[in-house]
Write a structure and sequence with these properties.
Alpha-Beta Plaits, 2 domains, 4 helices, alpha+beta, three-stranded antiparallel β-sheet
Length: about 180
């Protein structure tokens, strides 16, 4: 019988809105690279006379169409006949995981720039503007560090922002020329 080890990997970074990939770490891309690289472990690491198997299954990467998840979970296993092959499989798997994590900056929030730059976000409001003049204004949600950014797994609306809505409405009215 062969030996069997399990593989459990969590590629964790900073999730985000799919239209704002520059504001997150794309764990999906990192996981795809990881799966591809792990497939080379068996063909390159063990000696040909000592067969081995490394398989990645299942992969879980969130449930929402337009969000990059914070964590992608990969699982799988290795099979081998010799302890030396087991050790080589473990060593190469660890090296590949660390290398791709470094390359893809799948390291957490310290790899993310929270500055607000122009956005590729889309909104149905653009369709309304085709019919009538108007403006779309972002009032903001406060610092991202205290609350999750919009459209992320940590999204948490900052209720304190509601105090500024009246001020924002007065500002819009003033722009229109009807301030009182």
């Amino acid at each position: 019988m062969v030996g069997f080890d399990t593989i459990d990997i969590a590629a964790t970074g900073y999730g985000g809105y799919a239209a704002m990939l520059h504001d997150c770490t794309d764990n999906i891309v990192a996981s795809g690279q990881l799966i591809g690289a792990l497939q080379s472990v068996v063909s390159r690491a063990p000696v040909p006379q000592s067969p081995a198997v490394l398989s990645v299954r299942p992969v879980h990467a969130g449930d929402v169409y337009n969000l990059i998840p914070e964590t992608v979970r990969l699982a799988g296993g290795t099979r081998y006949f010799h302890e030396a092959v087991k050790a080589r499989l473990q060593k190469r798997t660890t090296e590949i995981c660390e290398g791709i994590a470094t390359q893809q900056k799948v390291a957490g929030a310290d790899a993310v720039n929270d500055d607000q730059n122009p956005s590729m976000a889309s909104e149905d409001f653009a369709v309304m503007l085709e019919q009538a003049p108007g403006a779309y204004i972002w009032l903001g949600n406060g610092p991202v560090s205290g609350f999750g950014a919009r459209h992320t797994p940590r999204d948490d609306f900052n209720d304190v922002v509601l105090r500024g809505i009246d001020r924002g409405a007065k500002g819009m009215k003033a722009c229109r020329g009807g301030a009182r």
